[in-house]
Structure formats: structure tokens, C-alpha cells
Amino acid sequence: MGFTADRLLLFGATGDLAQRMLLPSLCALHDDKLIAPELRIIGTARSEYDDDSYRAFAREALEKYLPDFRKPAIDSFLPRLSYQTLDANDASHFTDLSDEIGTIDKGMAIFLSTAPSLFEPTIAGLTQAGLTGDKVRIGLEKPLGTDLKSSREINDAVATAFPEDRTFRIDHYLGKETVQNLLALRFANIMFEPLWNAAHIEHIQITIAETVGLESRVAYYDGAGALRDMVQNHMLQLLALVAMEPPANYDATAIRDEKVKVLRALRLVEPGETVTGQYRKGAIDGQPVPGYDEELGKDSDTETFVAIKAHLDNWRWKGVPFYLRTGKRLPERMTEIVIQFRRVPHSIFAGAGALTQPNRLVIGIQPQENLKLTMMAKVPGLDRGGIRLHPVELDIDTPDVFAGPKKRIAYERLLLDLIEGDQTLFVRRDEVEAQWDWIDDIRASWAEHGLKPKGYPAGTWGPSAAIALAERDGVTWHE
Fold first, then answer.
1. For 16, 40, 307, 400, which has the most beta carbons within 10 A of its beta carbon?
2. Could you tell me the CATH number of the domain that includes residue 134?
3. DSSP 151-189
4. Which residues participate in catalysis according to the annotation?
């Protein structure tokens, strides 16, 4: 792990992410005494604030987004904060920033959330101001480019000042408790890992569904679309954790070595194995909502929905399809992974009139964190009309099982790991580039075949072609 930083520099300290996630996460860590009393948090952005006015800004955000039981900690947390206005394109501003930060002899962690075009001047400014030494590590929030080429350019710019062991690429899904529980589920239970392969699993579904539309992300989202915004990072990281081989031990290098093997095993997607869509006007929770073009204020071919049938060309998963689906303005907010096991090879109950169904494991990530395992059981009775079997669910609701520990925002864990220097839940450069390589091939195929998004009414599960993508294989999306 190396050093524990006693300075945390937050770029984008006045943005939406800082207000909703970063400041509440840091206040929670402060409340639980998980960060040292001497840790100073320096915010920076283009907005004009001094220390007092920024603390007032932070108080307003914390009053709005912090859980009520945490709010008594606000008064003692705010003195940790200071602020320095910064224009990344003005080199002199970094000198002022360095003066505000003071000594970094004990170590500094940087959280960098900025437009891709500002990565290079930001790194250059930090270097010139002496803020990139051996006792400085940097956390990078997405987007890290729009394709493999631009991602490499950003990574090259960062690498001029920060070697890989001091570069922490953030995917906040990896901070979610249930995502980490995937590793415990697979590798701490002997009943699952021997069955976790093509011989026993028929297919796997991964769904990330959102009810929201563009919200405050208009400028970014229309240039990105669902494939780059969600599949390239969150979905492929979930796929890698589900499909990876057992690492030798629980450390950053071993886990990330196995994840990158999965990402490199992704087969090129055939033209008929993707569906794209864009929401039209409809209703969410009974309330009318506008279509994407209306919300955007212009015509656009950006996809707000994508479904993909993916394959891994390796021994463990040969022949097992992975159905990926994500979209905006869908009927419910949901992130889940479905492991569909194969049928028993021979049912001894068929002659008695009983039907069996294959087992299914559903891993809920949000909004509920839970595990549901569907198993067959005999219906009670004297069976004079024949044996009857019925699927029953073993339902483990994580918050109920672990009622003591407080539920945490994913960024709490990631910020603490950044401060302390644990890279296990961060993404390595070769992972990012393997993800972009696969995504770029899909986008090139869309362009080659002139694929345009199909319309779907807001409040539905996407275009009908997405249903057909699975149903032609005899598969039904889990809803």
C-alpha cells in the first residue's frame, strides 16, 4: 500500500458528483473516524469561492444528500475543507494551488474528474507545480476517452507523471458491496465454483436499467451513448468478475490479471448480435416523459439502449452466451446478474408427471442487494395424482442478514482505498484498453452496416428486437 495520504485534492469540487457522492462519502468516513484527523481536503474548480464560501456550499450539499443520522458530523467535518479556484489552461493557477496545498511530504491523493481535453494541461500543470512526486497518487474518474486511441492518449499523458502503481482508474461499480460479494460467492463457497462453467451454466444475463433520462448530463451523454457510457466500463467489469478464473490470492495484481484475461477472450460481435434503441415519449411511474430528441432539443442518432449477445472464447465459457442489456427510461431502476443453470440431464420424476425447471441464481446489485437461488422442491401432499414439483426461492437479502453494518456509498470505499493506496478495486490500463478494443469493433460494425437506434416508448424494456435477440435462442430476459 505504501503511504497514507494526509492531503486529498478534489478536482471538480463544485460539480454534481462532488455534491451527491464525494462530499457525503468523505463526511461519512470522517464521522466513522476512518480518515486521520490531519487529513486536509482541498477542493478546486473554475468556480470562484474562498474557503468560507466553499464550506457554505459544501454544507448545503451535505444537508441535501447526507443521510440524517450522519448530519451531526457536518460541523466537525467542514474545517477539513479548503478551496482554490483553478483554470486548468492557466499554468500560473497551479502555483497558487500548490501554495494552498502546502507540504506533501507525508503524501497526497488526487481525485481527478475532468473533461478529456483537460487531462494533458492538468497533468502538465501539476508537474510544473511540483505536485506529482513519489508521494502523490491520482484517481481518474471516467470518461477516460471516447475510443481506444483517445484513451491511450489520456493514459500516456497521465503516465508522464504517474506510474501505474500510483494511478487509480475509478469504476464506481467496483465499490458496490454486492459486486465485491461476487468474489466471495464464487471463491468462498465450494458449492458454486465446480459448477461455474459451460458444462453446468446455459447462459448469463447482465442488466443495468435506468428510469432516468438525460438529467444534467446532456453535453456528455449525446457524444457518448449507452455503449460507451455503460457497457465499456460497468458492464464489462461485471462480466469480468463473473467469468474470471480463480486468482491465486486476494490482491490487486492477481485479481486484475484474471479480469484482463476475460476481456481479451471476448469474441468479436457479429452484426446480428447487437440491438440499439432510443427512447421516445412515454411514461415512467405513471408520469409522462419526453422522448430523447425532445429532451435534447435536436435530432440525434445516439443510442440510449443497447443489447448485446457476447461470447468468451476460452475453455470455461465456450458456447455460453452472455446477454448484456442497458438503457435509459426503462420501467425500473435495476442492476442484476442472472446465472441460468442447465437442466438436470435426466429427470427421475418425469414418469410421475412432475416437471423440473433449471436452477437460477439472481444477484441483485441495485437498488436491492440480494441473492436469490431458485431450486426445485416437492409440493406437500399424498401424491395420489402424481408427484408435483415447484420452484422455490432461497432469498438472501443482504441488508437483513448484515443488519449491523451501515450501508455505504461505493465512493466511500474507493476514496478510502485511494487515500490508503489499495488498488484492488481500481481498473488497470490493460483492462481499460481491452474494453475499448472490443467496444471500438462494435461501433465500427454499426457504422459499416448503417445501424441506427430503433425507437422504444419510455417506460418499456427497449425495442422489440432486444426481446427477439434472446428469444431466438429460447431465452427470456429476466424481469
1. 307
2. 3.40.50.720
3. HHHHHHHHHTT--GGGEEE--GGGGSHHHHHHHHHHHS-
4. 234
Whether residue 62 sits in one domain with residue 30: yes
Structurally, the chain folds into a number of domains equal to: 2
Residues 6+ apart with CB under 8 A from 199: 342
Question: Do the bridges between strand 370-378 and strand 360-366 make them parallel or antiparallel, or are there none, so unpaired?
Answer: antiparallel
Domain of 204 in residue numbering reads as 174-416+428-471
Q: Rg for the chain (alpha carbons), in Å?
A: 24
Which of the 8 DSSP states describes residue 19? I
| Cβ pair 251, 421 in contact under 8 A | no
Residue 466: what are its φ and ψ, rounded to 5°?
Answer: -70, -35
Contact 232, 208 (CB under 8 A): no
pLDDT tens digits for range 254-275 = 999 999 999 999 999 998 999 9
Q: How far apart are CA 262 and CA 188, in angstroms?
A: 20
The gap from C-alpha 382 to its chain's centroid, in whole angstroms, comes to 50
3-state secondary structure of 325: strand
Q: Please, are residues 139 and 166 in contact by the beta-carbon 8 Å criterion?
A: no
φ/ψ of residue 209, rounded to 5: -110, 135
Three cell numbers, residue 372: 436469490
Residue type, 471: E
Q: What is the pLDDT of residue 402?
A: 55
Residue 134 has pLDDT above 70, yes or no: yes
Tell me: do 98 and 185 sit in the same domain. no
Among 110, 143, 169, identify where a domain stops: 169
